[in-house]
UniProtKB/TrEMBL annotation:
The lineage of its organism: Bacteria, Pseudomonadati, Pseudomonadota, Gammaproteobacteria, Vibrionales. InterPro entries: DUF2857. It comes from Vibrio owensii. This is DUF2857 family protein.
Amino acid sequence: MTQQTTTLTSEVHWAVLNHLAHMACNGQDATLMAAGFNAKMIRQLKQHSLTEIKQLSHSICGRQCAVDVDVLRKALEMVDIPEDIVVFLQLGSSNKALTHFFAIKGTVPAQWRKAVKAGPSFRQRCVPPSQVTALWTCLESLPVEHVREINREQIIMVAKTCQLSIGAIWAEICGDSERC
C-alpha cells in the first residue's frame, strides 16, 4: 500500500470511528448493538476524545484495514452505470450487444468495463463447440419468431442458464452479419 493510500485509509477510518462515536454519544446504542458492537465498545466510543479517535484510526490502519478504500472507489465508479447495464457487463456483454440492447456507442462501454468485471464463467468471446447445441436449444425454446428479436431479460436468462457470456451468445446469433 502506498503512503497516500495509507493516509487516505487512515482518514476514512477516522471518519467512520468519529461517526460511530457520535452515534454512541447520541444514544444510538441499540443501533450499534444490532450491528455487533458490545456494551464495552460503545462505552469506549463514548469516552474517546477526537484526538484519541484519530490515534485509534492510525492504530487500526497499521494493523488491519477495516475499510478497503479500493472497494469504496470501485463502488463510486459504478454509481453512474445503470443497473441493467451492470448486469450485462457482469455477464460478459460485447460492445455489439450493448449497442443492440441499449443503443450505446462510443467509448462509454470501455469506461464502464473497467469498473465492472465479468464473472469467470462469462469471459469467453465465442461459444465453445461443445456448447453450441445446448445454446441453440435454449434459444429456440424462447417465445420469439427469430432469435435476433430476443429481449434483455431473455438473453440474461440464456446466459445464466448456459453459463455463456452475452457477447459470445450475441456473436453466435449474429454470425458474420455486420448489421447485428
